[in-house]
Design a protein that fits this description.
Helix content is about 40%, strand content about 25%. The chain is of the alpha+beta class. The strands form four sheets. It has a five-stranded mixed beta sheet. α2 packs antiparallel against α3. It starts with a helix and ends with a helix.
Length: about 375
């Protein structure tokens, strides 16, 4: 009797532990797959970025996978034997997914609990367009471009209509990135507050932030037009505010060499480059000024980063993306060296030794 009671208690504890551990399950069958490994990857953004990889055994094409998820994650699935065929999908907590077909957007089929029933309807809805896109890939570049443009002109309004008709379904959030790039923010705004702030929130926040920057860049390019730097040309004004809210004018720095350092609190390589940049600032301080230009950031994160890393030079922040367009910023960090007369001498992408060699050769003359 005591033995049976002990077994019952152990079984109950194990069951509770298992249920507490995993809140997502996926089963399925992959057409054409025998015995293989299914690689499942997704990115956790908070509290810090982490890429999670699972390798799941596939036997006679069938697999089963479970995990503990804090929120919904966008990720990928591919077979170890065929890494070129990759399927993007979503892994959602408190749901069970059933997959069948192949790992591509034309032959994927989904069912399961509520989210994956919705997701299955969405992938079925997308399939005719994905079939057209797949066929267009086999065409020469010029023809493929024309066909893709035609497909998008028909697809985008239908996708937006689907979002408008199903704003209260979590799976609808997966469709917002498939409308025209200039309609993504509008598509997100059509979702109900419950969906926007629910388990898809982090993914939607990431998409919203990304496309806010995209649209800011589009607006900035229109505003700047041909007013961009050329090596050997006069530097354009920034018109950006410093930490005290005052506009910093580059002409006020005439008489010194100036380095414009385009960076962001989110940019790991920018931060890693600070110690060496500090060395050079101290080395040439009598002849050199540095202006840090914070990009794609909030004012709070900007000021906190300057304080945390004790960055001693001047600082301004680009709020609208126009400065990046004027100076043809291609990535981060991005440094532009300006002569005492206000002439653009050179520009460097990334944390490169070439920039410091050029600085030495120029300032030691």
């Amino acid at each position: 009797m005591m033995k049976n009671l002990f077994v019952t208690i152990v079984f109950t504890v194990v069951s509770l532990t298992t249920s507490a551990k995993d809140n997502f399950k996926m089963t399925g069958r992959i057409d054409g797959a025998g015995n293989d490994s299914l690689c499942i990857e997704y990115v956790i953004l908070q509290p810090q970025k982490e890429i999670v990889t699972h390798k799941v055994a596939v036997k006679n094409g069938e697999f089963s996978f479970s995990a503990k998820l804090r929120e919904a994650y966008c990720g990928t699935m591919f077979l170890k034997s065929n890494p070129q065929e990759i399927l993007s999908t979503y892994f959602v907590p408190d749901e069970e997914a059933v997959f069948s077909g192949r790992l591509n957007e034309v032959e994927e089929h989904w069912s399961g609990t509520t989210f994956y029933q919705q997701y299955g309807r969405i992938t079925d809805f997308q399939r005719p367009f994905n079939v057209e896109f797949a066929a267009a890939r086999n065409e020469p570049d010029s023809i493929r471009s024309l066909k893709n443009r035609d497909i998008n002109s028909r697809k985008d309004p239908q996708y937006m209509k689907y979002i408008e008709n199903h704003p209260d379904e979590d799976a609808t959030a997966t469709l917002v990135v498939y409308v025209g790039y200039d309609q993504v923010l509008t598509a997100i705004s059509k979702l109900t507050p419950e969906v926007r702030k629910g388990r898809m929130k982090t993914e939607l926040d990431k998409i919203e932030e990304m496309f806010t920057q995209v649209m800011k860049g589009v607006a900035a390019r229109k505003a700047v037009k041909n007013d961009t730097i050329t090596i050997g040309g006069q530097v354009p004004e920034l018109g950006l505010k410093d930490l005290d809210g005052n506009v910093l004018e580059l002409k006020s720095l005439r008489g010194k060499y100036v380095v414009l350092d385009f960076w962001g609190s989110w940019c790991t390589w920018c931060i890693k480059g600070f110690p060496k940049l500090k060395e050079y600032y101290a080395k040439y301080k009598d002849r050199l000024e540095i202006v840090g230009i914070d990009c794609n950031d909030t004012a709070e994160k900007w000021t906190a980063a300057v304080k945390k890393h004790k960055v001693p030079w001047l600082h301004v922040r680009s709020e609208d993306g126009i400065a990046e367009q004027k100076f043809k910023v291609q990535g981060y960090p991005y440094k532009v060296l300006i002569s005492p007369e206000g002439v653009v001498l050179n520009a460097y992408l990334g944390e490169t030794e070439e920039f410091y060699q050029y600085l030495d050769s120029t300032l030691e003359q």
